[in-house]
Amino acid sequence: MAKIAVIGAGKWGQALHFALSQKQECLITSRTKRDIKNFVTLEEALNCPYLVIAIPAQQIREWLKNNFKYKEGQKILVASKGIEASTGEFLNEIYSKYVPEDSIGFISGPSFAAEVIKGLPCALVLNSTSKKVYDKFKPFFPDFIKVYYSSDVVGAEIAGAYKNVLAIASGICDGLQLGNNARASLISRGLVEMKRFGKKFGAKKSSFIGLSGAGDLFLTASSTLSRNYRVGLGLAQNKKLEDILDELGEVAEGVKTAEAIYKLSEEYSIYSPIAREVKLILDGKHPKDSLKDLLRG
Ligand SMILES: NC(=O)c1ccc[n+]([C@@H]2O[C@H](COP(=O)([O-])OP(=O)(O)OC[C@H]3O[C@@H](n4cnc5c(N)ncnc54)[C@H](O)[C@@H]3O)[C@@H](O)[C@H]2O)c1
Ligand SMILES: O=P(O)(O)OC[C@H](O)CO
Questions:
Q1: 174 lines ligand 2 (CB under 6 A)
Q2: Rounded to the nearest whole angstrom, what is the distance from the C-alpha of residue 179 to the centroid of ligand 1?
Q3: From the CB of 226, is ligand 2 less than 6 Å away?
Q4: 169 & 108 share domain
Q5: Which residues does sn-glycerol 3-phosphate bind (predicted)?
Q6: How far apart are CA 139 and CA 155, in angstroms?
């Protein structure tokens, strides 16, 4: 009987299912039936002692409420990257109402699903306040993925969510053809910005200069493989957000996370100029006006 199951069969769920099927049988489930090996019902998946949950951040609260009942001894790995826009709550806070803290971990680090599903090498971080969660999950991962451990759950979560907003900014920058200097400046100031934001919530500095922060930011903010970066390219072309997202057909977490960061920054008086401009552009501000304001500020 399989021990591990992936919940959510989007791009990341399928890539993780592929990776976790290399050494053992791994089940997968999603809302709609898919033609994937070892696809099972949600009920069957939820019976596994090890679960990997790969559904978008904005849907998690509702999904947990309607579907999830923690079974004693289960270990959960959260694969989503985002902050809930309606409440500003981090995913670990949402999950804390359903899963004991010593039984949950969060994956972070540079990892395009499109490359993982081809078996290309990468390095990830499994973040959990309990190292036991890392020890339990690590053996499931294939040889082409190196998994590090960190106890900084909040740092990894903020870095993974914030970089999506910065990737939108970077896409806008490239879409406006502002050049390599501008993109490098934006990315490095973005890194400072996410670190400052994280500090307010107790995140460790080291998470931002490692795989979860700089690693994922450099990846996402400089590649058209990133959905968030592509949203930025579309915005620079003055396309409507609705049309960009329709065309994308997949989740771009940075859109809602920009809203969450904006609200949290206002509430806690955190200086977050790039995330703020991304939020304003998503609300209709012209990207060129944002650029002027960023250069001036
Ligand atoms: N794609 C990547 O390269 C990648 C890498 C690392 C992390 N992530 C993160 O993983 C998460 C999922 O991304 P993705 O790439 O799989 O997105 P996707 O758009 O490809 O798929 C999202 C999946 O979530 C499911 N879903 C949506 N709403 C749901 C609900 N209410 N209940 C149950 N299932 C629901 C959809 O059916 C779909 O299967 C995001 O938070 C993303 O940031 C993605
Ligand atoms: O395609 P994106 O922008 O959602 O990024 C995917 C991953 O988070 C990259 O690590």
A1: no
A2: 31
A3: yes
A4: no
A5: 81, 109, 111, 163, 216, 226-228
A6: 24
Distance CA 74, CA 63 (A): 18
Domain boundary at 102, 133, 151, which? 151
Between 291 and 9, residue with greater pLDDT: 9
**Active site includes 163?**
yes
Domain that holds residue 272: 155-296
Contact by Cβ (8 Å): 50, 75: yes
**How far out from the chain centre does Cα 118 lie?**
20
Contact 256, 245 (CB under 8 A): no
Q: pTM, whole model, 2 decimals?
A: 0.98
Q: Which amino acid is at 76?
A: I
**Residue 166 identity:** L
Q: Are residues 206 and 143 in the same domain?
A: no
3-state secondary structure of 75: strand
Model ipTM value: 0.98
- Which residue carries 């010593």 as its tokens? 102
Tens digit of each residue's pLDDT (9 = 90 or more) over 47-84: 999 999 999 999 999 999 999 999 999 999 999 999 99
The single residue of 37, 75, 138, 163 carrying the catalytic annotation is 163
Site to probe by mutation for ligand 2, drawn from 16, 81, 231, 248 as the one with most ligand atoms within 8 Å of Cβ, is 81
Give the pLDDT confidence of 248-285 residue by residue, as tens digits.
999 999 999 999 999 999 999 999 999 999 999 999 99
CA geometry: angle 157, 154, 4, nearest 5 deg: 60
Say how many domains are in the chain: 2
